[in-house]
Amino acid sequence: MSDKTTSPIPNLSRRSLLKAGLATGLTAGAVGSARAGGDPLITEIQEWNRYLGDGVQARPYGTPSEFEAHVVRRDVEWLTASTESSVNFTPLHELDGILTPNGLCFERHHGGIAEIDPAAHRLMINGLVDTPLVFTMEDLKRFPRENRIYFLECAANSGMEWRGSQLNGCQYTHGMVHCVMYTGVPLKLILEEAGIKTNAKWVMPEGADSSAMTRSIPMEKALDDCLVAFKMNGEALRPEQGYPLRLVVPGWEGNMWVKWLRRIEVGDQPWHQREETSKYTDLLENGKARRFTWVMDPKSVITSPSPQAPVPHGKGPLVISGIAWSGNGRISRVDVSLDGGRNWTTARLDGPSLPKAMHRFYLDIDWDGSDLLLQSRAMDEHGFYQPTKNELRAERGENSIYHNNGIQTWHVKADGTAENVEVS
Amino acid sequence: REGGVLGLGREATPEEVAAWDIDVRPDGKGLPVGSGTVAEGEVLFADNCAVCHGDFGEGVGRWPVLAGGEDTLTDERPEKTIGSYWPYLSTVYDYVRRAMPYGNARSLSDDDVYALTAYLLYLNYIVEDEEFELSNENFLDHRLPNEENFIADDRAEEAHYARKGEPCMTDCKADPVTITMRARILDVTPGTVGD
């Protein structure tokens, strides 16, 4: 137990001395174990039980407890040449439910985080429209709004695992995903405001950052469920998530969710931009490459136990917890295997079940302490279920980079530790 | 104005559209008037690009390789470059103009970008003459070798998706499952377990 709030020596207060003493006492004894006379955490009056805590305005924008300081986004330095065109990872192993806290949503930038004054931000609609338009943020907040919960998964999530087990922890193997509630304007309404021409078949969002991200999106999708969003989980978008404006493309690969959205062009053909030719195309074993692989297929991962979340308690009741999602719609079912995929038990979905959103599943077991080869297998409402990694490799080879939704295996050992493994 | 339903926003001026709409399509739509030669591109590349991409587009450290890699797409470790992988030259022009040099985007003139695109064609042996000049007039005459190798998304036809229906629930594998690979052996994960 660290004591970050202890004063420097000259100002040592009685209170901080007490805190220091308490910390020593805690490390000496096993926390929570019964002793003669009882647990001192119960039999002795605790500091927080006696003294006043901080007042209401001590934390005008609250942050997590200092004891949760390890629950942070992390990166893998060797993955990319520079941190401004790079990625970090959501700490999935520490989270529960279906919503990701804004400060923990993984980041993927191609030119760093653009810091934009919303008063200086503009959204332009041009191309095959009756009237090219410019909107301010104030204009956009006068359109009718929608609130929708969607997952956003990077196309490259799990991409480092195509050749086999590489990174040890679901934060790293599966953490390029988050799920929040977006508030925004249906893209359809904005396009209708400009008036799309009859030969308009595609739209191309563009970002205001130094990478000027662009992707081609078919008009059918643009008019279906895309949002131009300015809020996430009730508050303004975080700068690293596109403040003040981003595109939401439900169920589709994260690259298309253009951040710092400044322009939408309407056209009759796709543009074949860098991010849909050089990148976000999926090389197959025969040398051909798929393009426009937009949808994120059904996928799941057990978040606990997992390599970063070992079992701390030995045999007995054990909560197996995980997440599942599908770009096709709702998750209808998640099966869990304890023996590497020989036998499966249908897990319990808990919490809201929303299309193209994260789902939470649990399987409560009585662990006998023997080795487990834990797997989860998601099914979506259209009957598509999550393939094994070997099934994917048989179809695609190992150089697709993107769209790895193969079943993950964790080897849980008798000591409760877990490892990322591949199985026969 | 026409089209408006709610009457929000205002009409974009032609100057505003021109300032932001700089994208170029494979059919040449969006190409600005201009030109540049391989020789000019070589100088620009040395001054603005080679520090990351190498003098010959070979890439420095982990920075992207821009040239070479022909006939490697079926190799165990493919090298995907403009010459070996990219389908369209328009993407080269568009991307360099919108996003390069990294950290100093939009600093090149339209003619600069033609010259750099010409030099990238040269580095990839798609043109061989140092005096070659690329312009909006002859841009469509030059195609990239891998254009035909991109296919539509046909994932739904893969065996594991095509079968749909009820998956196996019991005794799904004949033999006991064995571990074939462990992440810990590679040991490339940052930090330590539980940190």
Automatic annotation (TrEMBL), chain A:
Keywords (A to Z) from UniProt? Metal-binding, Molybdenum, Oxidoreductase
Q: What class of enzyme is it?
A: oxidoreductase
Q: Which GO terms describe its molecular function?
A: sulfite dehydrogenase activity
In short, the EC number is 1.8.2.1
* Residues in coiled coil: none
The chain positions of domain Moybdenum cofactor oxidoreductase dimerisation read: 292-408
Q: Where is the Oxidoreductase molybdopterin-binding domain?
A: 110-271
Read off the SUPFAM superfamilies from this record: E set domains, Oxidoreductase molybdopterin-binding domain
Give the required cofactors: Mo-molybdopterin
Q: What is this protein called?
A: Sulfite dehydrogenase
Question: What species does this protein belong to?
Answer: Roseibium salinum
Q: Which gene encodes it?
A: soxC
